[in-house]
Amino acid sequence: MIWILIILSSVSVSVALWPAFPSHIAGGIPLTGRGNFKQVTGQQRNTFSYPKGPIIPERSQVNRLCNCKNEVQAVDARIRSEHSLVERLQIKVDDLSNIVYNLRSVVQDYNLQDRRNVEERLSQQFGQSIIVSFSARVRANKSFLGPTAAIVFDEIIVNNGEAYDPYSGVFTAPVDGVYHFASTVLSGFNSTIETMLMVNGEEVGRMFSGAFLSRGSGTNNVLLNLKEDDEVSVNVFYGNGDYVHGLWSTFSGYLINPLY
Ligand SMILES: *[C@@H]1O[C@H](CO)[C@@H](O)[C@H](O)[C@H]1NC(C)=O
Ligand SMILES: *[C@@H]1O[C@H](CO)[C@@H](O)[C@H](O)[C@H]1NC(C)=O
């Protein structure tokens, strides 16, 4: 009985060591016979001491080794089937990443089309150029201005896009966008004038110009997000002054970028 237990134990360990078996041992054994292979437990492994010298398997061990081959083949088959599952999953992942890639290019095309539409509108309005920028100054001294009169900077320096009207002093935004405006107003001698940057009649920036026994200039800058057709101008600040000095007073603006 004890002898059988020892044999079983050694077989179990041999099975556990199967992949490490020298090939001449495994190769020399006729691998036939069937039986139920039982899992090697830790207890069995612990009670067995590996024999010194070459391992010469006995008949029952040979049967065990044959069963072990079946087990190895079964494990091998499982590994192969799992490997093919991994391969199929990899193909699915590749397919999905292709879909994402295609969707991204669709979105890019869409954005590009949107941008082209705006650029087309701009180029229809301004020929080949989408530049919107102007600079103008007051040609002659102006006096007797109304209480909130627009100051007419009537001498054009540049007017790319013709969005600034030198007869009314009003800039009209041709497209939605971010714009920059700047103005400098020089007062009359020993007098003051207050002015303001206005969008559609609403004040967005103030300037004070004046000096004692001299002339003084006020200046301001503003960035604006404008909608198409918004109007920007420089106006007298509610009657606080009625004179603007010619050639020294300017109004400039330009489109930084359209807003889609
Ligand atoms: C504006 O008036 C001043 C005198 O007050 C004169 O010296 C100057 O030449 C005038 N400027 C223009 C552009 O007419
Ligand atoms: C300058 O203005 C002050 C008041 O603003 C006035 O009292 C003075 O007479 C003025 N001087 C000249 C030379 O116009």
From TrEMBL:
Coiled coil: none
Major localisation: secreted
Record SUPFAM superfamilies: TNF-like
Pfam families referenced in this protein's UniProt entry, alphabetically: C1q (PF00386)
GO CC terms, sorted: extracellular region
Superkingdom of the organism of origin: Eukaryota
Entry-linked SMART domains: C1Q
Cellular compartments annotated: Secreted
PROSITE patterns: C1Q
InterPro entries: C1q_dom, Cerebellin_Synaptic_Org, Tumour_necrosis_fac-like_dom
Signal sequence residues: 1-16
Keywords: Secreted, Signal
Record-annotated C1q domain positions: 127-260
Name of this chain's protein: C1q domain-containing protein
Organism whose genome encodes this protein: Patella caerulea
Upper classification of the organism: Eukaryota, Metazoa, Spiralia, Lophotrochozoa, Mollusca
